[in-house]
Structures are given as structure tokens and as C-alpha cells.
């Protein structure tokens, strides 16, 4: 008993932060660690594709067209004799890049708006609530497609918008509502807490209180939202590319599925299968990791 009491006292004295405790919880769950490994594997593949180490010559014909999967060509070849395996790997880069950049855009818009609305309240809050309520009233996919269609061929700061840039903006500019609502609700609860009142009494400006005190205390919600919505952004990129409004002259999972529609009726199933497996695997892994992060970082769930 004395040894257990001493160990408990040592743990209390040392303390353990929220992030360290969350990591400790995640490490206990084998399925979560396996899924985290899958996510990291996809990230490594995307980096290697960017570096040109793998799939750099995806457009090069490696054999006759419509060769089935074999030892030489793991996922077979397409109508042009290109390796479906290389195209699938290149699609990892496209999907993860689009989802990551779109997430940064949505966070950059949603977090400041949500914090401002929740802290200042009044007419500013009413205006921001009206804004995100209006955006939310439009179906998300239709809004993405409308933005992608309108932005296609336009210029931004003198740079032409096409391909992946259009997808970045279309998804990022339409997906900030969810994080904005979450941050607004949390900031409303934090604005009257003791540490905020102490900062006001100390003479801190409102901007400093929001940036240096409130947002760090709600940032775990940003990370949870990021991990859970990442899958939605990957799916959105697949849909946009499938409809011909996404990347140009590059393989993506959506473009591969679009090409495979006609191939299926002729019995050439491997391109559709490769893209579907790649999407399903990363979606499952990200959902499991996102749910685990929410369980580990959400204060309400932690207390339960």
C-alpha cells in the first residue's frame, strides 16, 4: 500500500498535461495505433510522390492496354497501358494535398470568425451567425461544385486558377461553417471564466485575450474537427474530380473512378477496385483515429 501511495503521489506531483494524457490513451488502443500507422503510411507515400521517388513516371506506358493484375503489374494497366498502381499512388498525393490545404483554409476562416462571434456577442455575433446559417442552408456538395465551376479559369492575385487550386478554394471556402459554430459555442462558455476575467483585470486587450488565452484553450476542438472532416474533404475531392472539375492532366482517385465506369461494363474491374480500396482504407483509418482523438481530447468525454 505504501508503494502504491508513493507512486500515486509521484504521478500527482509530476502532473500530466492533456496532450500527454491523450497520447497515453491512444497508445493503449491497438486498433487506433494500426490506423494511425496507415495514415502515416499514406503521408509518407504522398511525400515520396512529391519528391519524385515513386510514381513520377505514371504517364509512361508499361505494357499493353487493359492487362489484368499480375506479378509484373500489381493493379494491371489502363486503356493507355499505364500502370494503375502508379496512378493510385499518385492519387494519394492529390487527395491528401487537397484535403490538407482545404482544411487549413477552412480553419483560417472558421476559427477567427467563431472566436470573434463568441467573444463579442451582440450585433457582430448576429452577423456572423446569419452568415454561416446562410451558407449552411445550401447543400455542401452543390456549393462546392458551384464554387469549382465559377472559379475555374479565373485569376487570383494574377495567378490563374485551374486544377488543384480550384479544388483547394472550392472546398476550403465552403467548409468553414462547422468549425465556426463549434468554436463560437465554446468561446461563449470560456469568455466568463476566471482566467479571462483575470486577463481583463490585468488590462489585456480583447484581441490579445482571444489570441493568447481563449483560442489555445479551445484548440483541441480544432484538432478534433480537422481529423474528422479530413475524410469529408478527401471524398469531396473525389466527387469534384469525378465530375471533371478537379485536377487536370494528373491522375486522381475521382478521375480513375470516372475512367473505370465504362471499363466495368467490359469486365475491366481493376482500376475501379484500386481507387476504391485506396479511398476506403484511408477513410476507415482516419475515422478511427478521429473518433479516438475526440474521446481522448474532449473534456466531457474525458470526465465520463
Question: Which band does the percent of strand residues land in?
Answer: under 5%
Separation, N- and C-terminal Cα atoms: 27 Å
Q: How many alpha or pi helices?
A: 13
How many domains in all? 1
How helix-rich are the residues, as a percent range?
over 70%
The parts where pLDDT drops under 50 for at least 5 residues are: 1-14
What's the rounded overall pLDDT mean? 83
CATH superfamily descriptor:
MetI-like
Largest sheet: 2 strands, antiparallel
Question: Would you write up a description of this structure?
Answer:
The chain is mainly alpha-helical. The chain has one domain (18-55, 75-303): MetI-like fold. It contains 13 helices and 2 strands, in the order ααααααββααααααα. The protein has helices at 2-14, 18-28, 30-50, 84-120, 122-136, 140-151, 164-172, 177-190, 194-202, 206-242, 253-265, 270-297, 299-303; strands at residues 155-156, 159-160. The longest helix has 37 residues, at 84-120. Mean pLDDT is 83; it is low at 1-14.
